[in-house]
Amino acid sequence: MSALRKNLSTGACCAGLTLLSACAHYSALPLPQTAALAPSAAELPVPPQVDAPLSVEQVVALALADNPDLKALRARRGVAAGQVKQAALLPNPSLSAALLPLLSGAGTVTGWNFGMSQDIKALVTYKSRHRAVLDSEGQVAADVVWQEWQVTGKARQLAGDIVMGERLRPLVEEYVRLLADRNARMEKALAARTVTLTTIAPDRVALQSARTALDTLDQNQLSLRHQLNALLGLRPDADLPLSGQIDLPPFHPADIEAQLGDLPRRRPDLLALRLGYAAADESVRQAVLSQFPDLVFGGSVGSDNSRVVSGGPNVTVGLPIFDHGQGGIAIASATRAQLHAEYAARLAATTGEVAAMVSEGEQLASQIAVARRDLDPLRAAAERARTAFGESHLDERTYLDLVANRFAREQEIMTMEVALLDRQIAIQTLIGAGLPTVDLPAEPAGVTP
């Protein structure tokens, strides 16, 4: 019996050393004490590949590489991968042992027992749990790609709006200078008492309105710059030169409408919902399988204080008298039904949203075409008025009215062009035109759109 005790002690020591060698070790990960905002694009973690002013698509590449929220979201994939690794492991058996020294009675030696058992129910639900975690990992991956689409669309919109604003500013600035010159002359005339305050009042109002428009444009441009810098992980005062090139993927409404049919297979948010639905479906399967009674099977061996050794199998069975798993099945089924309804609602909203934006874009494009046709005569009239005014054949008030009409029309056209650009970018973001899909997970098995 001493040999048996020695063998048991040796085995226990070996098992303990094996477990310790397989254990992970703790390492600290301190939180940052300062905001990690780069003072310039060149000092970003992934800097631009070119030193020249950046095009819109180069700004998009920076956003995908350096956006702080994307970096945080991508870390979720590590958590999901860990959950998959955990779910792939078989449940551990349980080991029990006891040493029973003699306290009183007729015995002569120390008693002992040793047993090992395995939860059978955990093995029954193993495959379903593993599939559910795989679907959940795919859902996280699809969520990451969907967020990449959103960041891409936001970067395109901000950079495009900044470029369009820079194109508009010289026009507004020229109009302000024209009105300021006119107002300066009228103020001198008022001081000389050759005109009345009533005469110059409209000029003052027009100049103030033009300056307000220029200030509003500058404020909007600064706000857009700050938003773009935040999107890239730059400090608000960092300078990010843009080339003025709005290089977006080709936009063809007919092609976009044709792509709506396979949108559920390409749009990450819809794929994420389907993967979430697949995981919920596996949860229903697990709840049904969990009706299998709790069953623990094992074996044990032991010796009493009189050297009598006995051993054999043992079984523990849960009696499903009160709990038949009906609560878990109801919760899992309701969750699956909820996700089913959410997917149907998202799919309907997506199709309607894209179709509505395409229709609105077509209307805007038509209005811009009409406005551009009207602009040519207005430009010609303003140019003739400039010549006539220079030759003293036209009074200044009429000349300014004709020029103001041209400026107002050009500003209106550029405003509509910005609105059309924003809609086109939104549509391309919703359908994934020119957007990353390489990291999209596979379709969930057994779940079709």
TrEMBL record:
Domain of life: Bacteria
InterPro entries reported in the protein's UniProt record: MdtP/NodT-like, OMP_efflux
Keyword Signal: yes
Record has RNA-binding as a keyword: no
Signal peptide: 1-24
SUPFAM superfamilies reported for this sequence: Outer membrane efflux proteins (OEP)
Record-linked Gene3D superfamilies: Outer membrane efflux proteins (OEP) (1.20.1600.10)
Keywords, ordered alphabetically: Signal
Protein family according to the UniProt entry: Belongs to the outer membrane factor (OMF) (TC 1.B.17) family.
Record protein name field: TolC family protein
